Amino acid sequence: MRRLFRFIWQFITIPVRFITWVGFRIKTLFKHGLHNISSFFYDEETDDTPIAESLSTTIENPKALLPHIYALRKHLLRAVLAIAIATALSFLFVHDILSFLAKPMAGGIDELIAIDVTENVGTVMRVTLLSGFTIALPYVIFEIWLFIAPALRVRSRIKGIIAIPVAILLFVGGMAFAFFVMLPTALPFLFNFMGLTTQPRPSSYYNFVTLIMFWIGVTFEFPLVIFLLANLGLIKAKAFASQWKLAIVIIAILAAAITPTVDPVNMGLVMAPMIILYFISIGLAYIAERGRSTKQKEALSNN
């Protein structure tokens, strides 16, 4: 009889015991997560080992690389999985994405006429893959940072986690600039150049638009990269300012490589923001140098 009452009591209290178990697990995971975050940002400073010494140690003991390779594989698998999920989601809304990308044209997506049999399929796949990669890019960058962060000092880790959203905002800002400023200005001129009417094809149009948006987004990252390098003391603002003529030549070469056509209009549209960003980078490098020199003076005075 006692066993029967015990069984009935255990059966009745199943929901309560389940909720208690779930609450305990959540509490444990939360405390474990807080401990990991605390140790990640407030652990002891990482020792700086010279690169030559690290290489010699790795050559003598190649097995020491295995944990890093396993960690890299884990981060890459998660990044690829995120890209796959984002690409699948993009495929569900690919028609809306195609319609949105065609808005800079006067007639929109209805102006596009395919000639090849597989042209529409190839265009859809290209736009879907690029959309998925763009959506998953913040997470991919975060996974890269998670792989690199354990080898950095705590201060560098904090700077890295702050730089990630800034880099994303710059990339999105560059794409928005290309889409809302450059393309509405360039497309009417290109479609009616010399009085010749152009009938755009889906493959050529979306190739042109996505290429311009992607590379302009990448170039908008330049000021952040220069600021971080100047903050580390790897580059000097004075050197950048003195080599501005050479920089313009290099920018022209990069613009010619980025643009799918060789006309000077497209090159000029790509070069203009890149040149402006170059001079902004000089100012940011100067600010970073000032901050770095101030910290060094404070460190010397404290010692």
Account of the 3D structure:
By secondary structure, the protein is an all-alpha fold. It has a domain at about 65-175. About 80% of the residues lie in helices and about 0% in strands. It is built from 12 helices and no strands. Helix 6 (about 120-150) runs antiparallel to helix 7.
Annotation keywords:
12 helices; 303 residues
Quick overview of this protein structure:
Helices cover 80% and strands 0% of the residues. The protein is mainly alpha-helical and 303 residues long.
**Tell me about the biggest sheet?**
none
Helix content: over 70%
Radius of gyration (Å): 27 Å
Q: Order of helices and strands, N to C? A: HHHHHHHHHHHH
C-alpha end-to-end distance: 79 Å
Beta-strand content estimate: under 5%
Number of β-strand runs: 0
Look at the helices and sheets and give the structural class: mainly alpha
Q: So what's the overall shape?
A: flat
Mean pLDDT over the full residue set: 77
Catalogue the unreliable spans: 44-52
Tell me the layout of helices and strands.
Blueprint: H1 2-12, H2 14-42, H3 51-60, H4 66-92, H5 94-101, H6 119-148, H7 154-191, H8 202-219, H9 222-231, H10 237-242, H11 244-258, H12 264-302
